[in-house]
Design goal:
By secondary structure, the protein is of the alpha+beta class. It has a single domain, classed as first zn-finger domain of poly(adp-ribose) polymerase-1. The chain is built from 4 helices and 5 strands, in the order E-E-E-E-E-H-H-H-H. Strand 4 and strand 5 form a beta hairpin. The mean pLDDT is 86.
Length: 121
């Protein structure tokens, strides 16, 4: 059970790696910094804003704060990968992880994510 949880969206002072998509969060980009205690264990999580949106949507749809990255990967595949142009439609032969697929990521981008990619905006 989640005992406590804190989340902020600071600007990175150095490069970090997103825990879910494993992409680099570049210096100067906003990201989700999360800390908490789950079942007696402390955790720290850094996520790019797109992956934070994916996580939030998954938790809202499942109605639960408990998750595993594998569950989210399967959920993304179920929602988006069947008709994907990256593989042979319906064959499940795409080599790309869904959290790294540009078609899927675009569905979770917000204005804040876009501004992150283009800091001059």
């Amino acid at each position: 059970m989640l005992e406590f949880y804190n989340q902020s969206k600071p600007k990175a002072r150095k490069d970090h790696v997103c825990e879910f998509c494993i992409q680099t969060i570049r210096k100067g980009e906003k990201y989700s910094y999360e800390t908490g205690k789950y079942e007696g264990e402390m955790f720290v999580r850094k996520l790019c804003l797109v992956c934070k949106n994916i996580l939030d949507k998954f938790c809202n749809e499942s109605g639960d704060e408990e998750f595993s990255w594998d569950w989210i990967t399967d959920w993304l595949c179920d929602l988006y990968c069947y008709d994907c142009e990256h593989g042979t439609k319906g064959k499940g032969d795409c080599e790309m992880q869904p959290q790294n697929c540009p078609l899927i990521r675009s569905k979770f981008e917000t204005k804040e994510c876009t501004q992150n990619a283009n800091p001059a905006n």
